[in-house]
Predict the structure.
Amino acid sequence: MATIRALPDLLVNQIAAGEVVERPAAALKEVIENSLDAGATQVDVDVAAGGVRRLRVADNGAGIEREELALAVARHATSKIAVPSDLEAIATLGFRGEALASIAAVSRFAIASRAAGRPHAWRLEVEGGTVQPVAPAALASGTTVTVEELFYNTPARRKFLRTEATEWAHCEEAFRRLALAHPGVGFTLQHNARALQRLLPGGRHARVAALLGGAFADNAARVDAEAGGVALSGFAVRPAYAAQGATAQYVFVNGRFVRDRVLAHALREAYRDVLHHDRAPSYALWLTLDPRRVDVNVHPQKTEVRFRDSGAIHEFVRRAVERALAASAAEQPAVSAAEKLGLAAARTPPLAAATGPRADGGFAPALTQQGGLGLGAAEPSAFYARLFGTRPDAAAAEGLPATGDDHPLGFALAQLHGVYVLAQNRAGLVLVDMHAAHERIVYERMKATLGASVPVQPLLVPVAFAAAGREMAAVEEQSDALAALGFDVAPFGPGTLGVRGIPAPLADADPVALARAVLHDLSEYGGSDVLAAHRDELLATMACHGAVRANRSLTVAEMNALLRDMEATERAGQCNHGRPTWYQLSLADLDRLFMRGR
Ligand SMILES: Nc1ncnc2c1ncn2[C@@H]1O[C@H](COP(=O)(O)OP(=O)(O)OP(=O)(O)O)[C@@H](O)[C@H]1O
Ligand SMILES: [Mg+2]
């Protein structure tokens, strides 16, 4: 057996480099993080050949004193923590005191720095782990780190590098994460001498738009929640616009990009109700909390965290995002119809900032009058009361002016082809998908009543239908679930089921079609806790059957009542499948459509 001996420093650092710097992007991340820890307000990143040939990061941070330059590249040397208790509350991105030592062991490395208030800058080179003497350098302020020929002295590692394009893609992603996490810092990025990014210091929305695209920023619901010293803010893309392909999922914990199962799960849950299953959510969220409540000393790359109270964090995040997505229909939908059709280059102003009724009065009053005519003639109908479970808004039935701020969706004008409701609001024209909107309202209402158990509406005349074996079985096995959902269904004979009652909120639905749809779901899901496990799917099925069908003509009063219900319903902006339920077409959109100067 060979003798046991302590490893030389270079070898120790090269081994550590295997964990910390698996590829150029990881080195880039470490170097930029150091700049941010040094309080830089501007970070300039220059990459050559996917980061394999060169990574250079220049910052305007606090800088390093001449005497400390050698320590900066020494292993286990850090200015960020000093005593064991510091590990309990890490407030900086770095703390292990090993990143530069590791990088310098596997590259041609140089660090130049001018400490704040010093007349000169100094530079230190490390060649494959061998530290050269400190020499004077020219640098206005801050620190510049250069990493060249990564893994030149560790051929085994070098072999694992992928193509330049792949390594560059990883570098770009590392840059994106850091620049997103720190919108208050200005960044530039260039690759192979091509300038690619120039990010001015600013707010999160602008940074998200610059790095994740205008579509992301425009279609995202704003998340803003705070409780018990924990805050979550940022943007969650509305389900209707969630990408089917590429997704952007960024969560930053105290300014650090993390991959965390607790958070990922909380976010999936938050979207579960409103997102079609073949789509993936996109978000950029910043979680801030006392550093004592989260452990970042979990993994050498520091992309994993452990929350001291992960249950509470899960609940907090899920609710905050759910609430943001549930923003009631009173909010402006993400994209105006004109934009969807590609008509408008400019963005529609948000409802609150929208142009009021036109001063010349040419257009708006004509529509108001039409609406008024219809409204005046209409009586709040019993059909609506049965269908929607509420009395139509009396004020709406009297034909109030269509400019009231408490009615963001405005007032109904007409029904189009039995599918769409047209309404006029302050900003212009509102188009509502009648069935989708009503489906959402019914769903939310069912969900609210299910807590107790849904009241049964007995049928005047029970309806019998020929049932398949599995439908018979479902009635037998799931009698409790059926009762809780508001059904009274029983075998009427061999191969025959009878519907004697259906859920009261769906009194207008076709009893047999509704019962069959639910029985189908029940036999599909099965199990003793089917209601607990599949409540939402079952409610969605029922809501679809209970919602007003296309081609059903509604009176203006009924349409107005639908609009009021949408305003009062959470998540009314999307149907249960994540499609939008309404669109705003502003006067400006219409003017553009007719090339009408204003
Ligand atoms: N851009 C910079 N500006 C100012 N000081 C720096 C800069 N880069 C590194 N340093 C100094 O060098 C030290 C060592 O950096 P290094 O990245 O190796 O370790 P760390 O950041 O302390 O911990 P970690 O290994 O977790 O990154 C830092 O603690 C810091 O004092
Ligand atoms: Mg560091």
Residues 332-404 have pLDDT under 50 and may be disordered. The two ends are 90 Å apart (CA to CA).
